[in-house]
Design goal:
18% helix
Length: 158
């Protein structure tokens, strides 16, 4: 996907106020530094069952945005779930929370942004919501809106 090579700074210079920029400092943790695609969303808290089941479905180049309420107490994605995302054609994952298996995930051809990592597993009850509007750091993420990510940050269509 050619759009994945777009630098967010250049895109912001071009489109400016059409885009929202996330100020929260996410870490770039995946093997792909630049990724973009239509947004899909999940809201969950310390429970990654919806993340796992969603990334096991065809991604068609989408980016899954997961609002884990910023919790770093448990990981919402590990290497097995990330490998499933790659196998199913997801462009990337943005997690307002933690991942685990950082070294393995860094070797996968997947864009990953998260707040940090924690080896602790999350719950598996399936609590949460899919395909809902999210607000992270005063930026709205709507299912279907375009998102662009690179080491400089995250931009999303208003």
């Amino acid at each position: 996907m050619a759009a994945s090579a777009v630098n967010t700074a250049d895109l912001y210079d071009e489109r400016g106020e059409e885009l929202d920029s996330v100020a929260l400092q996410f870490q770039s943790l995946g093997g792909k530094t630049h990724f973009s695609g239509p947004v899909r969303t999940i809201r969950c808290f310390e429970d990654n069952a919806l993340v796992k089941s969603t990334l096991a479905t065809p991604g068609d180049g989408a980016v899954l945005v997961v609002d884990g309420a910023g919790s770093l107490r448990t990981a919402l994605m590990g290497d097995l779930i990330a490998a499933s995302a790659v196998a199913n054609g997801w462009a990337g994952v943005v997690i307002n929370g933690a991942i685990r298996d950082r070294t393995a995930i860094a070797g996968l051809p997947l864009g990953v942004k998260a707040l940090g990592s924690n080896p602790r597993k999350s719950a598996k009850a399936g609590a949460g919501e899919s395909d809902v509007e999210l607000e992270i750091d005063r930026v709205i993420f709507r299912p279907g809106a375009m998102i662009w990510c690179d080491p400089d940050g995250i931009l999303v269509e208003r």
